Amino acid sequence: MKSVLALSMLLWLGAIAPAQAAGKWVATPYAPPKVMFEFYLDDPQKIGSALYWVRSLMNPLLEAPYDYSPEDMNIVVVIHGTEIVTVATKNEAKYQEAVERMRYYAGLGVSFKVCGQAAEDFGYAVADFQDFIEVVPNGIVELAHWQQQGYALIVPKILEKTIDIESIR
């Protein structure tokens, strides 16, 4: 009787605990996004890293199994920190790579909005910005507006990389 019980216990444990564990791929059924990114950076050089967050949202949804078109996505970027200088036309040469990336995303339908109050603090007028920029009265009010419209808020967290990936794998 003990051997039958032991055998049935082993079979039962084998059924619930596989011999070797492994992860599995799951394609979550994502809906087309309604997302607002808040860029409020302490260093304008970090805008490149913040833009990777936009890419990280868009790229998987543009590819299989989702295959959404850019028109399916509603994405707004609210700019109201030091990164405002990156979208001023007078600084285009200094921030050319970031400007080109933003222009590309704007061409895909991403809206880039600059806080008018912060722009004024920086000494900028509407005419000082790239042609894909929309200046809004206030960044904080803009953030509240889009959230009230059902947009999810994503705030990129840009960290200083102090350890390379290879050393911590």
**Residue share in helices?**
25-40%
What is the typical, i.e. mean, pLDDT? 91
What distance separates the N and C termini?
Answer: 49 Å
Biggest sheet details: 5 strands, parallel
Q: Give me the secondary-structure category.
A: alpha/beta
Strand content: 5-15%
Tell the overall outline: globular
Order of helices and strands: HEHEHEHEHEH
Strand tally:
5
The helix count comes to 6
Whole-number radius of gyration? 23 Å
| Second rung of CATH, namely the architecture of the domain at 44-159 | 3-Layer(aba) Sandwich
Major sheet: arrangement of strands: 4-3-2-1-5
Low-confidence stretches: none
Give the class-level CATH name of the domain at 44-159.
Answer: Alpha Beta
The CATH superfamily title of the domain at 44-159:
DsrEFH-like
According to CATH, the fold-level topology of the domain at 44-159 is Hypothetical Protein Ychn, Chain: A
